[in-house]
Amino acid sequence: MAVRAIRRMGDPLLWARAQEVSDISALADLVADMKDTMAALQGAGLAAPQIGVPLRVVLFGVSVNPRYPDAAAVPETILVNPVIEPLGEEQDEAWEGCLSVPGMRGLVPRHRRIRYRGFDIDGAMIDREVEGFHARVVQHECDHLDGILYPSRIRDLKFFGYESVLFPEGFAEQDA
Ligand code: NI
């Protein structure tokens, strides 16, 4: 398939709510392009609107990187029509980046534990309870489906800036 161009912040499509998928069997080409694009850009996640398709489809996954052995692995997952339910009141703040906001990092609060549900590419139900980085990536991707980019969630814009300034030694997590 193909590596697709990423829409960047400023594009109105990224601020729009994406539509529910009614026919999962029609998603094969889209999902193949999303996988190729995420792999080419070494992302941790990608939402269909980021490649210009306003449908409720997200892809995420992180394999253990030998350079960052403490970073948790997240299974590669396609999630169609996802629904998130926070578990408990606890929130974490951590640094995020986004393929649609290249070169930037921000400190973003997220629910620490969530349950998420949706469908895989074969129409089978996915239902998981997760926490930490896995929960963060899912929340970041599902925000894209509601037209929310992470800078909108930053509490203090002192903690938003260029990665090369904030982290001159480099940064572990991948964009999503
Ligand atoms: Ni993103």
Task: Describe what this molecule looks like in 3D.
The protein is of the alpha+beta class and 176 residues long. The chain has one domain: Peptide Deformylase, CATH 3.90.45. It has 3 helices and 8 strands. The strands form 2 sheets. A 5-stranded antiparallel sheet has the order 1-2-3-6-7, sandwiched between helices. Strand 6 and strand 7 form a beta hairpin. The longest helix has 14 residues. Bound molecules: nickel (II) ion (NI). Nickel (II) ion (NI) binds next to helix 2.
Count of helical stretches: 3
- Largest sheet data: 5 strands, antiparallel
Uncertain stretches = none
CATH class: Alpha Beta
* Rounded Rg: 15 Å
On the 0 to 100 scale, the average pLDDT is 94
CATH architecture: Alpha-Beta Complex
The N- and C-terminal alpha carbons lie at a distance of 21 Å
Layout of secondary structure:
Blueprint: H1 28-40, E1 45-47, E2 57-62, E3 74-86, E4 91-96, E5 104-111, E6 113-119, E7 125-131, H2 132-145, E8 160-162, H3 163-166
Antiparallel strand pairs: 1-2, 2-3, 3-6, 4-5, 5-8, 6-7
Describe the structure in brief:
The chain has helices at 28-40, 132-145, 163-166, and strands spanning 45-47, 57-62, 74-86, 91-96, 104-111, 113-119, 125-131, 160-162.
Output the keywords.
three-stranded antiparallel sheet, binds nickel (II) ion, five-stranded antiparallel sheet, Peptide Deformylase, 18% helix, alpha+beta, 3 helices, 176 residues
